Amino acid sequence: MDKVIISVLCVLFFIAGCSNNQDDMNAIKKDGYDDARESAWHFVKEKGWDDRAEENWQSANVTKTIADNNYEFLDNDYEEKELLLISFKDKENVVLGTPSILIAPDTNKVIGYMPSE
User: Fold this and answer.
1) What is the pTM assigned to this prediction?
2) Predicted local confidence at residue 93, as pLDDT
3) What is the DSSP letter of 3?
């Protein structure tokens, strides 16, 4: 009888854990920045930096920032403007992290990046 109760509890914990992960992914998708994340991920892959980042690009962190001279610009018209900054989670034990990518919020165009250290 104890084994049955333990088995049922294990299954319930597993189901609860999976539903939390699904809720997290749903929350990520609902923030409206999926196109910006995807654009940034394509740029990262184009530059060959994707070997540094986890491939779960949908969970990349998106923040708003004022672009200053700390960034490498592809389009200088956006300097000192509010842009989206997309940061990908790095793989474990990478020496050089994945650069954060600047995206224009109105077009989802890559504007620049912050070199990683």
Assistant:
1) 0.72
2) 85
3) H
